[in-house]
Amino acid sequence: MNSDELVELGQQLRVDSVRAAAAAGSGHPTSSMSAADLMAVLLANHLRYDFDQPDHPGNDRFVLSKGHASPLLYSAFKAAGAIDDDELLTFRKLGSRLEGHPTPQRLPWVETATGSLGQGMPIGVGIALAGKRLDHADYRVWVLCGDSELAEGSIWEAAEHAGYEHLDNLTVIVDVNRLGQRGATRHGHDLDAYARRFRAFDWHTIEIEGHDVDAVDRAYGEAISTTGQPTAIIARTLKGKGVKATEDREGLHGKPLKDADEAIEELGGVRDLRVRVHAPPATPAPRTAGRDGLDLPRWDKGEEVATRDAYGKALAALGAAHGDVVALDGEVGDSTRSEFFAKEHPERYFECYIAEQQMVATAVGMSRRGWVPYASTFAAFLTRAYDFVRMAAVSGSGLNLNGSHSGVSIGQDGPSQMGLEDLAMMRAIHDSTVLYPSDANQTAKLVAAMADLDGVRYLRTSRGESPVIYGPDEEFPVGGSKVLRASDGDRLTIVAAGVTLHEALRAADALHEEGIPVRVIDLYSVKPVDRDTLRRAAEETGCLLTVEDHREEGGLGDAVCDAFVDGRPTPRLVRLAVRTMPGSASPEEQLHAAGIDAESIAASARLLVEEAVVR
Amino acid sequence: MNSDELVELGQQLRVDSVRAAAAAGSGHPTSSMSAADLMAVLLANHLRYDFDQPDHPGNDRFVLSKGHASPLLYSAFKAAGAIDDDELLTFRKLGSRLEGHPTPQRLPWVETATGSLGQGMPIGVGIALAGKRLDHADYRVWVLCGDSELAEGSIWEAAEHAGYEHLDNLTVIVDVNRLGQRGATRHGHDLDAYARRFRAFDWHTIEIEGHDVDAVDRAYGEAISTTGQPTAIIARTLKGKGVKATEDREGLHGKPLKDADEAIEELGGVRDLRVRVHAPPATPAPRTAGRDGLDLPRWDKGEEVATRDAYGKALAALGAAHGDVVALDGEVGDSTRSEFFAKEHPERYFECYIAEQQMVATAVGMSRRGWVPYASTFAAFLTRAYDFVRMAAVSGSGLNLNGSHSGVSIGQDGPSQMGLEDLAMMRAIHDSTVLYPSDANQTAKLVAAMADLDGVRYLRTSRGESPVIYGPDEEFPVGGSKVLRASDGDRLTIVAAGVTLHEALRAADALHEEGIPVRVIDLYSVKPVDRDTLRRAAEETGCLLTVEDHREEGGLGDAVCDAFVDGRPTPRLVRLAVRTMPGSASPEEQLHAAGIDAESIAASARLLVEEAVVR
């Protein structure tokens, strides 16, 4: 398109943004209007995209990091012929694909859910990295950011990552409209404040007037021809641009225009320009990431193996069989044991350094490109990335997360390194799977099973060694459990997983000696939970004693309750969990101090039986 | 101390770090050895600190952001005479104050718990901001960072905040020892890579040789005399410095030295230098932050008020009565309504822009200086700061957090803006308090009550208006609940809070009309939970139906289970919660689609009664 046409297209995107928000009665037209020219030039002259084939491997990828400017995105989709005007006006209504903030669950042309600021760009970096190092394709990634979101640290984790990886297939466009939600940003229209930050992180930067379509056009061309560095285009714009009543005005964030009809007239009225978006280049050769026979590691019963070791070895084996599996780590691969994968498959291993948000964002981006990511760090440090995990679920991303060093049983390092909230955090994620193995063979089987699940899958591993209790051919279906001790006369049932399972077994054996038979269930699948087995144990033993190396809230104990919240008769429930703030001590001392070791379990069981709380 | 003495002191700190780790059999001596000279010069020549009066208002504040280098910190404490050699050798043992990573819960000279990297510096920024804008004291804040942790985005949120606020009372010392946990950092010994990043964020920077005590001494002097900007001292060091077997070697992170005796000899043997740390300046006038009569806002029954509005107004009133209350927000004060506080008390309001980690870090820092912070943003975006909240609990910080826009009931904005995991996340925090009011007067009372609690306190507020159902003089003790509908013949009990409480009341009234009396409990205190009232309801009605605008895991339903996990007979439990991924829709449509509106509640109750699941 020539300059005049681009100006017209920009106005059309503004008009349609105003119309969509007016029809909805809510939304962010002013944040759309500032970026309309930036979007018009990209759509008409630079983006290579086949809207009929959103999965086309040669497609460029566009990410709206400022997700609230969804009216602009949907107006662009309309201009490209992907949706019609009737659908545009369903914006934000029940059942519409056009949500307040875009999600790929509903619209095939959306790469990732945005709306929590500072996430689109990090995920864009992940897609660009996939393009360079996995897909070996020449698609470009374009990310449109707001200026407000540059205050998020995740942006600078991403800037660091992209600069270091020389991602010259990535262009970030910053819509510097000076105004955040409640007023001016820190840096207003000081474009250099943003540009010098990006430059410090080794980016190429271009500062432009964001409403000058020729300048925008030139900047995109310069970005495309820049090699060895990602490019940040810092564009001076006006929020609410094009309508006197809204232009550069405070207090109008996230509100439809007061007089939409007048504004549309001022913008030159409704248009119906149609953009013929450039087609992607011819399809590259299909990816060769095949799936061969899986040869998981095997351990003999009685061996002492840490589940983190089993994780690393199983992941390396999975990587050998599945060419689409990739691994990421937050600079603790020697602890999580993802280093085993790194050694065997260095070309599919991504060191994300101590930047957990960027690690998860990279995994989400790679998942979008069809790869199967396993991202590992200490369970405690995954809390750093909780918003990214939450949003991955909104995107419907397939994502494997591993948290090692869970619980007080890590020992001397103390509470800062102990994952004690991870089960609560991961269980609350929509459609998540939460797994917590207790032995090496079980870990290996679950690592393999995760690859084929939907949504966010979380595997919790432990630092210390524990005995192998299952044979290498045993199966561990997700949603299942294992009954390890059972008799007709069981007085109660101990439910445990991971480290506490071994304590539970020791306690059960001691109790058996004393003539107190108890059942023991290995609840390795914390979510979904094995309701049938728990219910049967409840009927047969009357009391469930849960034991977990986790806070008492949101973990194994609460998971067991899940089996009984449908109005059926409920067993007596007793819970052992970590209720104190641990200090430094040995693993054994920690388990004892927290009251979750074999002695504490046995003492609790005795008390329950003696006090006739249970039969 | 002169140069020779400083060199000796540095060696002593190394020797003591090696000894402490050797005695413990674990720990991070090599990470301590790299920073020993930096610490020696600070302790001997620049820090102003009275170890006998850690609360002295004039004390400088030292934060060990690289918390794993705790042997160095404890060795410095010993050199300053704060602990003796016997205690030094209790490092990492059960019951010792000298934990693997330092915490203020056990040691009075520790400002904040560290060990999750990238947190000490952000919290140091909070302390420095308190010094400038609240305490009006001239203490300095010194933060010792590792180079690896500069990959964390939280560091750059903090750099942005400190640069923008011109915190020239803050000095960050970066120990660039080139090696992270599993190998080299991204930038190795490229000091300028770090310096230019800090400069881009408007910091003064000084690059030095970190083992040259004269250079270090001059750099500290330059930092002290620099005005208008924080200073970052980027120091080139060697990990394991001083011992040939460890110096600049990979693979030795977090491990005691193999031959400690030999290393100690190589370092010149055990010394017993004692440092006379400079005293702080004379005590400034005591803070005038008094507490006058509290005049909370009042609403009449039947008024329609959003709890977020009540939060903002109550917070403003609390600020008028309590001079020590401060408020922070993540650039959404017009939505959370913390803007009401900002208007009345601008000198105690801190705009943290869209940087939730830094917002919580600032609050933690201010809390350490005796202020009572209330930090607000959308409930959904507090997920961004979960690691900081977790670590605040490790510190034992008093911290008030407010999450607005909770649940699907926010309406059209869609799932990215909906706090649906916040109760799970906050309940799992050690010693936390979790409150979820349903009406304006209740909100106001709880906002006031939070100020005097210990630990992390979380208040969940709602976007939409709801009727005032309590009089302004009603009391709402933390740990309590309110029984709003009750009769002898109640067939079951509905437990709800916030938005769903109003739905529950409507359902109960409809059921009453149909001849099905039900009890309704307002569970405004989600943690601690009112066990007595729940147990009584269980005994009297046999079935508890929980209804929450939150994911089914970790929220209100699980909190109710807390009342029944001590082996007592358990009632039948039924749970209504958000089990789908919402799209855009009106608040009413959202509640209905999630199955948590009055109609859904009534339908569930009818089913339970008709199917004779309950009596």
Automatic annotation (TrEMBL), chains A, B:
List membrane-spanning regions: none
Instruction: Tell me the SUPFAM superfamilies matching this sequence.
Output: Thiamin diphosphate-binding fold (THDP-binding), TK C-terminal domain-like
Name the keywords, alphabetized. Answer: Calcium, Magnesium, Metal-binding, Thiamine pyrophosphate, Transferase
Task: Give the highest taxon in the source lineage.
Answer: Bacteria
Q: Which residues form the signal peptide?
A: none
One short Pfam name that applies is Transketolase_N
Domain (Transketolase-like pyrimidine-binding): residue spans on this chain: 305-468
Q: Which cofactor does it need?
A: Ca(2+); thiamine diphosphate; Mg(2+); Mn(2+)
The UniProt similarity line reads: Belongs to the transketolase family.
Quote the subunit structure annotation.
Homodimer.
Q: Tell me what this protein is called.
A: Transketolase
